[in-house]
Each structure stands twice: as structure tokens, then as C-alpha cells.
Amino acid sequence: MDRYIQETNMLDYSNANIQKLIQARAWQKLDTFGCIKAVYNFVRDEILFGYNIDDAIPASKVLADGYGQCNTKGTLFMALLRACNIPCRIHGFTIDKKLQKGAMTGLVYKSAPKNVLHSWVEVFFDDAWYELEAFILDKEYLSKLQQIHSDCSGAFCGYGVAVKNFHQPVIDFNRNNTYIQSEGINQDFGVYDCPDDLLKEHQQEMSFIKAFAYRNLGRHLMNRNVKKIRKAVIIEKT
Question: Which of 12, 55, 180, 184 could form a disulfide with 162 if both were Cys (CB 3.0 to 4.6 A apart)?
């Protein structure tokens, strides 16, 4: 299990701000289950759903940003777990871009690659690997989406969500797997020890021009859409 608790360039858990956070929250004083749950809830709800400049940024940068998506929030989640001596690994995929429709709109959506790089984190606990994905969307954002689409029953795909049961997704960790985008998966790359290794083999397929446009314009438009949803005022139907 040693390789599943190692620090890497991306999982830079010796960073001073990461260590300060862990000490302030006293996560290392909790039992293993309590620690996993507390770290999971922090990454899910206190690191807001949003789009960073690149998938390959280190955990310390995600923490500094205060927001992230599947790959970047996963990097922070793994770094915090490993800093608390909890083994974890990453499972790589791609998802259909339809899952992002709503967060992506207009030209940004049209120009996006059909297959979007995706990952979830697998945590070793009680002699089993748990698949944890639902840390991607903060509860405030998801709750607002559910209010906006209150007439949806059953499956939902869009705005960063792809689940079979939109109003009762399995997003809380209680010795179980959690999912929020898994129904959008269309390619499985398998398991890797760390995000550094995954990104050495699989990068987001995008031309230089499209990558530049995403970094400098597209992601800002997407983040603006996400913020609008999170702050939306819902008028109850009578």
C-alpha cells in the first residue's frame, strides 16, 4: 500500500497551506472512517464546483483556487487523504460532453471535444476499494439545479450531472460508493496510482487554439454559468 500514500508533484501534500488546513481541521485525530468522510465533505462542499485553468495543476493550487471539477477536485481529495495516511488511487475515463451542456453553452459547447477527460477517486478502507465521484458538485449547486429542474423524475444529464435518479443521487459517503457523473462515461482507462501517471498517458484531446481559448475565455464563461445557477432565485410554483 505504500505507493498509494506517496507524495507526487501533483499530490503535493507537504505544501504549507495543505498542512495548515489538515491541522486546523484535526483530521488526523479522527478514526479512518471519520477522516475519509470529513475530507470528502470538505472537498465536495467547501471547494466549489468550477473549472480551473488545467487538469494538471497540483493539489495546492486547487486549494488556493477554492474551486474545481472532477479531475482537479480529485487531485486535492487524494492529496488530503494521503497526507492523513489513507491509501487512494485514481480511475480514469472520458465522459460524453452532453453531460456538460448547460455549464457549457453556445460556441464553447459546440467547440468542446466530444469526449471529456474524467476521473474519480478510489479509497482503500476496511479491506475494500470505494469508488468516490460525487465530491465533484457542491451541495449548494446541486440543490439549486434540483430546484430549477423540479419537474424532472428519474434520470438527468447536463450541467455536470449524469445520474439515474436526479433527486436522490448517492452523494454522501457512508461506507458506500458515490456517483454524480458516472452515467456519462463512454471510455474506461483503468486505474492509476496517481493523477500524474494518468495524465502522462491521457490528455484532454484539444488543439492548441482550442486549449488557449478554453484557458482564457471558455472556462470563465463556464464558471459564470455555474455561479448564476448557484445564485439563482427559485420562485415556487403555485
Answer: 184
